[in-house]
């Protein structure tokens, strides 16, 4: 669940939720709607999670403070697209987050591209988390996250799609782009993220960024059994000698043979279990048409 700026849409999030009813606009007076949505639609689902999404900017400090307090009361993280584009600088989003008390470990900043050196240092000092969406940033001509500088200041980062429909929903591609963009920009093959580092960003790093590292992100006793099994005998993995590099640089979705979610088998021998793909596609097209019609 995401909750945008009060002048924007309340969007239950097509990536995290299977469907939605009708889009609607939410204003500050409707703050009580957010906990109701969480309680009625998300809490009954053991695999669902929520964040409160906000527009960060000096022009919306009052609303930002209200939604930050709401997220804190609900025990969920705050989520905001921050400095994705150069024009976002005009509303000084980092200052607004700091002045409202939202700039801390319970904040996930998406994109975080056009940060100043001072803002990068502050992000690390306050343990703010960031989501790196390289495929989206390239498609939208937004720029390149200063990931090496953020890393030097200890900023924790995960990988994101931003818009899975437009950006292939392929985490292997996201990993390749995260490595390749920095290497091309800095002309340095050793620049962060290294290949092992980007694999961590795609797994445990992402779990850290959404406050779920105690439950998911690694194969650890006591955590949920989320497992992706790759078939090592495929042509694109041969010859096999450096498994980490093979996964990041050569991996493709067809290499995934088994998927377990919370210990339950969801994909077996390359095929989804108990899922009719044609029906899913049909329902997605119907939902998209309904949203387009309402908009």
List keywords for this structure.
single chain; 295 residues; alpha/beta; five-stranded parallel beta sheet; four-stranded antiparallel beta sheet; 36% helix; globular; disordered N terminus
Describe this structure in words.
Residues 59-265 form the Amidohydrolase-related domain. With 295 residues, this protein is an alpha/beta fold. The protein has eleven helices and twelve strands. It has helices at residues 33-42, 61-74, 93-99, 117-125, 134-139, 147-152, 171-186, 195-201, 204-209, 243-250, 277-294; strands spanning 2-3, 9-11, 24-25, 51-54, 77-82, 107-111, 129-132, 157-159, 227-230, 256-261, 264-268, 271-272. It has a five-stranded parallel β-sheet. A four-stranded antiparallel β-sheet has the order 9-10-11-12, with no helix packed on it. The radius of gyration is 20 Å and the shape is globular. Mean pLDDT is 89; it is low at 1-27.
Quick overview of this protein structure:
The chain has 295 residues and is an alpha/beta fold. Helices cover 36% and strands 16% of the residues.
Lay out the secondary structure.
Elements: E1 2-3, E2 9-11, E3 24-25, H1 33-42, E4 51-54, H2 61-74, E5 77-82, H3 93-99, E6 107-111, H4 117-125, E7 129-132, H5 134-139, H6 147-152, E8 157-159, H7 171-186, H8 195-201, H9 204-209, E9 227-230, H10 243-250, E10 256-261, E11 264-268, E12 271-272, H11 277-294
Parallel strand pairs: 4-5, 5-6, 6-7, 7-8
Antiparallel strand pairs: 1-2, 2-3, 9-10, 10-11, 11-12
Helix pairs in contact: 7-10, 8-10
